[in-house]
Amino acid sequence: MRWILINGGFLLAMYFGLFEGIEVATNVVLLIAWVTIIVSPFMLTDSFLAQSQGRKRSVPGLLDGLFDSLVVLLFAWFGYLATAVFYVLHPIVVARFWKRLEQLETSPGG
Q: 62 is in which domain, residue-wise?
């Protein structure tokens, strides 16, 4: 439910910003996107992984990947190419995070 609210709100802001041309919404979307881009690599730190043990995905990885693909396509379509290129790194980092978390939890010391 939380995933739907957060990402649904983000898509709604993208709609108003990109399709309806509401500049404030565009600025909010770009701010959120760039904060996500900058913060994502920290998901792979040992301390974050340790704090995340026991967490489960809120939605299947495929749905998360489809959402991120849509975001990248919309940024590219509307000319925010740098944002699109760097945002591609976010789902890669997230996939690696889940893989490392799974490895950590299934390892003998985890």
A: 32-106
